[in-house]
Structures are given as structure tokens and as C-alpha cells.
TrEMBL record:
Localization of this protein: Cytoplasm
Keyword Iron: no
Protein's UniProt name: Holliday junction branch migration complex subunit RuvB
Region (Small ATPAse domain (RuvB-S)): 181-251
Source organism (scientific name): Jatrophihabitans cynanchi
Amino acid sequence: EELVSALPALDEREVEASLRPKALGEFVGQPKVREQLQLVLESALRRNRPPDHVLLSGPPGLGKTSLAMIIAAELGTPIRVTSGPAIERAGDLAALLTSLTEGEVLFIDEIHRIARPAEELLYMAMEDFRVDVIVGKGPGATAIPLELAPFTLVGATTRAGLLTGPLRDRFGFTGHMDFYDEGELEQVLARSADLLDIALRPDGGAEIAGRSRGTPRIANRLLRRVRDYAEVRADGIVTADIAHAALAVYDVDQLGLDRLDRAVLDALVRRFGGGPVGVSTIAVAVGEEIATVEEVAEPFLVRAGLLARTPRGRVATPAAWAHLGLTPPTAGGG
Ligand code: ADP
């Protein structure tokens, strides 16, 4: 398991589920999205109609899945969960859509990765609550229109920009999720510590929050590793000192950068002299897909002031050089 990765490890899903906020009022941070969503839901409840389809965009681990579940809970409806890559054929999606009950929430994670034929089927389903099911092949094939029960689609994506125009246009509301600040992460941690029965002192929470990469999923994971350390090496109480010592054992750096973040910075600074260099070149250098570099690593590096996206390519900031313990070449020297 990679300690600070923003993507969930398989065995962590259960713990994560237990830590999920269950109501909008329990959801920490994202005040803008929360307020907007509250209006969308409240108004739908008053009109007694399913709300418009909702798109949630933002980096992994910020609470998109949690919000989707909260939407269903607030509406008092069941939720069906799937993901873009899991929907391989339009027929699979048609079967799923026709099985939805009235008002149900359908959550599609990574919706930008849905196969094109399925996506096209989704257009009509979202707009008219109807699908055409194709029966047979070749010239004899016929389209049988089927009515769907009105439902609410909640889509999640790490990059709204990758969605096709027609798909994006069919969402009545898009919530843009941003990284959490340290105060918000401290609240997330206090809540989780309560649920997990961990004796977390405020200074311990602050220490963990500062290294959580702006991401609740990572904060919760670090909390559990620090708890392990506190129980084995101390009296179980998580203070700033204990958290500091524990995070040193787990190689979590001062900014909470993960392996990929560090690899990207390292390539940018050491191999390409700090840039500017294209993202595809960086991706090859770190052995990752371009999309992973762009969607998982870069948003936080930009937010942390370590990397800048310029028209000529990616550039390491002086803070990035300093973070790696290096001195940037003097400006104007070339
Ligand atoms: P995403 O779908 O964006 O990858 P998740 O909804 O799966 O993120 O969130 C990951 C974990 O982080 C959840 O299990 C939950 O414990 C925690 N979490 C995320 N957002 C919040 C929040 N706003 N308040 C409290 N916990 C949160």
C-alpha cells in the first residue's frame, strides 16, 4: 500500500466507508459546493421531483463519492454505483438504466472514461428518460424505445475538461471540488478520530493535516498510521511530537508529497533543468500515463506552488528547487 496515494487501496474501502459523512451537514469543507447542492436538493424535494443531474469534478479523495451518497441519503432514495470504465457496452448501460426505480440516484465514477456508444445512449436517457434498445444486427436491426423511470445521474470526474460537450451540457449542476485547507482537514481528522476512537490532540491533528496533501482520504489514512505508531511506541495519545515521529517513519515529507508528486518534481528539476518541458515528456520520464500526471499529481503541485503550467510547458518554481534541497540556476543566466 502506498501511504500517501490519493487513490484508495482495496483493503481500505471498508474503513473509508465507515468514515464517510452521511449527511450534507456532516460534510466538512467545500462550502460553495455544499451550499449550491443544498439548494438543488431542497428545491427538488419541495417540487417532489428528482433533481437535475449533478456533475462533481475534482482530484481523487476529495469526497465526490461521499457527496453522491449524501445526495441519495438527503433525497431518501437508493443509490446505484458504477464507473465509466466498468460500462463497456451500451447494452450494459441500457440494462442498468431500465432497472432503476423512480427517483433513484445513479452514480457513475470516472464518467469521462465511459465508452462512446454508452455515452451516446446516456444523452437520451438523461434528457428524455428514454433509451433505444437495438435488437438484432445489420440491416434487420430495430430500435425499440423504452421509457425509463425519472432518475438523477451523479457523475464524478477528475477532469471536467475531458468530458464531451454534449455530456457536460446535460448536467444541470456542476460542483467543482477543491483541495481542503489545513483547518478543514483538522475538522475531518477530529471527526474520524472520534469515529475510530483515537485519542487525537489538536496539535497532533494539525501536524497530520499539514501533510495530507489537501486531501481527506490521505488525512484519514495518515491518521490510522500515526495511531499505529502511537499505540505501539507510546501511550496511544496522538500529539504533535508523536505524529511528527510517526510520519518520519513512513517517509511522509514535510508537504505530504506522494511518490508520484516527488517523481514529477524530480524529473522536472533534475532531468529537465526546471523546465519548461511538456507534460508528455514528464509522463515518459516518470513512467506514467499523461492523464495520471495531469489529473493526480499536477493539481496539487500547482496548488502547493511547486509547479507552474505555462504555454511553453511545465516549470519548476524556486520553492520546488528548495524542496528538493537544490538551488535554482540564477535568472537570466542562460
Ligand atoms: P472521491 O470520490 O473524490 O475520490 P471519497 O468520497 O471516496 O472521494 O472520499 C474519500 C474518503 O475521504 C471518504 O471515505 C471520507 O472518509 C473522506 N472524506 C472525503 N471528503 C470528506 C469530507 N468533506 N468530510 C469528511 N470526510 C471526508
